Amino acid sequence: MAKLLLYLTLATSLIPLFSVAFSPENPTDRRVLVLVDDFAIKSSHSLYFGSLTSRGFQLEFKLADDPNIGLQRYGQYLYDALVLFCPSVERFGGSIDVASIVDFVDSGHDLIVAADSNASDLIREVATECGVDFDEDPAAMVIDHINYAVSNFDGDHTLIASDDFIKADVILGSKKIEAPVLFQGIGHSLNPANSLVLKVLSASSSAYSANPKSKLSNPPSLTGSAISLVSVVQARNNARILITGSLSMFSNRSGVQKAGSSIKHEKSGNEQFLTEISKWVFHERGHLKAVNVRHHKVGESDEPAIYRINDDLEYSVEIYEWSGTSWEPYVSDDVQVQFYMMSPYVLKTLSTDQKGHYSAEFKVPDVYGVFQFKVEYQRLGYTSLSLSKQIPVRPYRHNEYERFLPAAYPYYGSAFSMMAGFFIFTIVHLYSK
Amino acid sequence: MVGKTESQNGAVKATAAPAMNLESDLFSNFSFKSFKLKTKQQELLLRVSILGLVYILAFITRLFSVLRYESMIHEFDPYFNYRTTLFLTEKGFYEFWNWFDSESWYPLGRIIGGTLYPGLMVTAAFIYWTLRFLRFAVHIREVCVLTAPFFASNTTVVAYFFGKEIWDSGAGLVAAAFIAICPGYISRSVAGSYDNEGVAIFALLLTFYLFVKAVNTGSLAWALASAFGYFYMVSAWGGYVFIINLIPLYVLVLLITGRYSMRLYVAYNCMYVLGMLLAMQIRFVGFQHVQSGEHMAAMGVFFLMQVFYFLDWVKYMLSDTKLFQAFLRITVTSAIAVGALALGVGTASGYISPWTGRFYSLLDPTYAKDNIPIIASVSEHQPTAWSSFMFDFHILLFLFPAGLYFCFKKLSDATIFIVMYGLTSMYFAGVMVRLILVATPAVCLISAIAVSATIKNLTSLLRTKSKTAVAGSSKGTGGSKASSKASFDQSQPFQKNGAIALLLGAFYLLSKYATHCTWVTSEAYSSPSIVLAARGAHGNRVIFDDYREAYFWLRQNTPPDAKVMSWWDYGYQITAMGNRTVIVDNNTWNNTHIATVGRAMSSYEDEAYEIMRSLDVDYVLVVFGGVTGYSSDDINKFLWMVRIGGGVFPVIKEPDYLVNGDYRVDKGAAPKMLNCL
């Protein structure tokens, strides 16, 4: 009872502090709920958890079937991220279920799912919601008879050493991962209808997914590099999800020698790989924001409510990337702006001053209507930027046309000569008698 | 109200005879001058008071809707007019003239100033400003609501003068009384029906009156006035095309029947040239007036007039008839050849645009159905049923042929005009329901001639019988025809009783007309269609205000820049009342855009989603009237969405939505119908 009271006071005193932790201004997660099957994982995976705590995350460990767990209270989420290290759980305790996890992600929070062979239907269901399908055979594991990790005894080659990483610095950091990553667990495939899910670590072409204990009677359903070992999803609301079929990947095991390779690494690549990818998942990297979207006529500084056709205008936006502690200028040369009305009328690459300020000058097309300035910036690993700003474009006013057209001078001349002629004719006709 | 109308009709008949008495006697008999002046004053007083009563009657008979519901704008288009008028009064004329509206036709936008007829808005704003100047603190909405009744009252005055011009002042008074309560006109001019037609009928009749006056007098001033009347008409309504085709047709008929005169030449040339120049100042018309096919008839007749005049002059100069005959032949052939060549070259080079679909559909009632579903989809563009003729004209329908008979009996330039106006507009009224409105003034005038002439004959009969002493003067009054009839009837023994019976019959018919008009106005034409009323089970009135509630929901619960997609009927109301951007509205200028919306409405949800994303749609408004049995909901309009969508995008096929050729909306409906948006 006293413990509960202490917990409550602690929680209530921290809530105001935490509630500002995750915000558009400061997108890194702070409060992480880790659901485990048993607390032994806490020590067996201590290296990974240690790297998280050292970066300032507050981890809260709970048993997956703890009846008191819940993701939100009074409509407020208590956590910024959820880590599911509970592959065998059949039913979550408390108020958590698949729908509430999906809602959690839908409201922009992050998720790490680690399955294992014999993963429960519940974890499979969560994974399916995220766009990946684990091998349907519950006893199947990824087997690779060529790229396995050499160990003391000749095993069944389910501990594989993989180094087939995605080539994206923003996800895995700029430092190359030298050592292969140890993986032991179930493989999964990506749902082809889901365009948001990415393979980060895929199996080699000689891998296949089957039950190592039984004889292979049918050809395995998942083979080669179609097997994904680690996948990430960046949802449309920029929530990030990491899915892997191996819980032991996060463990403290070290030292690896890839079969067929003479180099024996003292440390496996797991630590570096997982540290970097969790930096990405927890929004310490690759999170962009655009501020100060402005546009004005060339030579003016105020933003008009409406443009006229053929005006020259200048559009500018500032883009920053979150570095984990502060907003740094984002530098790229491929940010484009569209001047859009049902289709882009102007498509222009923004020029940058290397300090995060992007700008472009262009002429409004000779078409009136309701246009939009659109910046659709989607790059691998970065959060997507989708800016649109509506602006109507009007035609000329009645007094903005040219007053005298050179082409029409013959007509002016004829009109005035006609008038003069008529006047003279009248005088002659009336007074010449 | 009924009683008042009757008394007016009675009074008209009573005054008709003295009016004529006076005119004939005034010049012949100076000895009675002092006495006659008195009757003249009496008669003038009577005439003015009758006209005044008719003026007031025309106004108050249109106020049913204000009394029943409230002072509000009706229907669909008036909401747009109201919104623009509001803009005009708030921002001033130049802003209005250059107004680019980004709230309608998203994302194309609409240049309001260049795509509307500003006459109505400027008129209402002018009335508003005048009232404000006189320190009457009125709201612009009240002005808008009452503009149409006010102009209906003015129309009665014009009708009086027109009737006086073509027949006599008695016919004018009857015409004024008829048009004041004629349901065909009331349908478009009740309080709250703030639409172009309300002002345009006044302008139309005014233009015609001034033109006939100009033809009768040959005066430049009247022709000038009619040009300005035409300008007002052009600024008020697209129906001005009727004027610019009817007048040349009339001139052509006069030329063919050998009634060409200098008066006609002056009237037509002045009216056409000045009217054209003025009409081109309206941005929506602009160069169409010299370039489009609808206006070519007027230009052709204009040149024909010059050829006629030239020939006249040559005939005057040449004394030799043979030589003139040869010259005539050459000139006419070359003139026709040059005209045909110019028209051919102009059409081929695209300088003269061909006739528009609406014009075609007027001439050929089946054209729109086959080619332009968007025109055919509007209920007021349907061919008229005979019952609605009866409904809108009542006894005028029978009096119309009688009036034509009288017109033919006493043929003049003016009566030829009214006959042509009546016949052409009756044809158009048969083609489209809404054009009954254009026919109404003609029908009223011609019927008024019939009533006035008949009653005058009958009363003069009575007079001759009772007072043989004034038989001579009475003979002068009724005109040659009437007096001959009267003298013929004198031989008959029952003629007095017969005349009394006929008069009573006429009064009975006229009182029936008045009752009918009041009933129609109160029951059929005074409901604002945006607020629905129904009789409950106990005869009580139930009011459904769902439309306005929906629009206010939009106004208060959606972000200010939200885009609402709906079928185009509701576009104007959403922008005016909901203050939200719409994709399409009642100004159906871009068929493709409407078809896109129709396609979105009639596609499967996932396809529709893509279309709507491309249009940035945030909300969709659909109307369902199933519970109350409201018949003009979107389910009913759905087939038109399919047809209009299919007209541009052939992937949409009407048979997909039908079951064995039937349109069903229950569970037996076609699968595509059930699964679409």
TrEMBL record, chain A:
Component of the oligosaccharyltransferase (OST) complex. This is Dolichyl-diphosphooligosaccharide--protein glycosyltransferase 48 kDa subunit. InterPro entries: DDOST_48_kDa_subunit, OST48_MD, OST48_N. It is found in: Endoplasmic reticulum membrane; Membrane. Pathway: Protein modification; protein glycosylation. Subunit of the oligosaccharyl transferase (OST) complex that catalyzes the initial transfer of a defined glycan (Glc(3)Man(9)GlcNAc(2) in eukaryotes) from the lipid carrier dolichol-pyrophosphate to an asparagine residue within an Asn-X-Ser/Thr consensus motif in nascent polypeptide chains, the first step in protein N-glycosylation. N-glycosylation occurs cotranslationally and the complex associates with the Sec61 complex at the channel-forming translocon complex that mediates protein translocation across the endoplasmic reticulum (ER). Keywords: Endoplasmic reticulum, Membrane, Signal, Transmembrane, Transmembrane helix. Its main location: endoplasmic reticulum. Residues 295-433 form the OST48 middle domain. One of its GO terms (cellular component) is endoplasmic reticulum membrane. Belongs to the DDOST 48 kDa subunit family. Pfam families: OST48_MD, OST48_N. GO terms for biological process: protein N-linked glycosylation via asparagine. The keyword Ligase does not apply. Residues 1-21 form the signal peptide.
UniProtKB/TrEMBL annotation, chain B:
Pathway: Protein modification; protein glycosylation. It is an enzyme of class 2 (transferase). The chain crosses the membrane at residues 44-64, 111-131, 143-163, 169-187, 199-224, 230-253, 265-284, 296-314, 326-352, 389-407, 414-430. Its EC number is 2.4.99.18. The keyword Transferase applies. Residues 563-621 form the STT3/PglB/AglB core domain. Residues 50-446 form the Oligosaccharyl transferase STT3 N-terminal domain. Keywords: Glycosyltransferase, Magnesium, Manganese, Membrane, Metal-binding, Transferase, Transmembrane, Transmembrane helix. It is a multi-pass membrane protein. Its main location: membrane. It is found in: Endomembrane system. Coiled coil: none annotated. One of its GO terms (molecular function) is metal ion binding. GO terms for cellular component: endomembrane system; membrane. The keyword Heme does not apply. It catalyses: a di-trans,poly-cis-dolichyl diphosphooligosaccharide + L-asparaginyl-[protein] = N(4)-(oligosaccharide-(1->4)-N-acetyl-beta-D-glucosaminyl-(1->4)-N-acetyl-beta-D-glucosaminyl)-L-asparaginyl-[protein] + a di-trans,poly-cis-dolichyl diphosphate + H(+). Its cofactor is Mn(2+); Mg(2+). InterPro entries: Oligo_trans_STT3, STT3-PglB_core, STT3_N. Belongs to the STT3 family. This is dolichyl-diphosphooligosaccharide--protein glycotransferase. The lineage of its organism: Eukaryota, Viridiplantae, Streptophyta, Embryophyta, Tracheophyta.
